[in-house]
Amino acid sequence: MHEAREIARAFFIESEVDYQIAQLLSGTDYHSRTIYFIQQAVEKIVKACLSLKNIRTVDHNLSALFAAVYQEDFRNMDDLVRGIDSLERHGARVRFPLFQRPDLPIWIPSRSYTDGDAGRAMRTGDVVYRSLKTYLDQVLGEPGSGPQPAPPASDRPAAR
Asked: Structurally, what CATH architecture does the domain formed by 4-140 represent?
């Protein structure tokens, strides 16, 4: 079994990748994907924190669990929970068309989210992300620091 710190570090590293992608997309016309990647960055950094407490979950709605576990550790817990919850509410909606109700037009995320929606999500995600990153930097060190396993070898033969 992997140690809690190893799992937390893995989530932390992947959250940093999603955060950087969200920043790259922010200000472009890819509003739904900007929201998706900032939501993913926040979800993964929350899972990094939970992993430190030996909590593993495949759930995507983590705001209440995070609050229960870390209530005493963050002075801005109410803001963090509101932020996490607001990003969780986008859920699959930012990635998939919704067509279950024939009385409504098909919801197409890439055509429905606006620059304002993406901007709000980025501001919200940034507050949560930076708070949890500060905590994890203190506990774990920066993402990517420490020994990393080598990537799996390719099944393809080496180029000549």
From this structure: Up-down Bundle (1.20)
What pLDDT, in 10s, does the model give residues 26-74? 999 999 999 999 999 999 999 999 999 999 988 888 999 999 999 999 9
The alpha carbon dihedral of 100, 63, 27, 10 has a sign of negative
Q: Would you kindly state where each structural domain of the chain is located, as residue ranges?
A: 4-140
Determine the Cα–Cα distance for residues 45 and 62; give it in Å rounded to an integer.
11
Which residues have CB under 8 Å from 112's CB, separation 6+?
Answer: 32
pLDDT of residue 144: 52
Residue closest to 111 by CA, chosen among 98, 124, 122, 125:
98
Which pTM value belongs to this model? 0.85
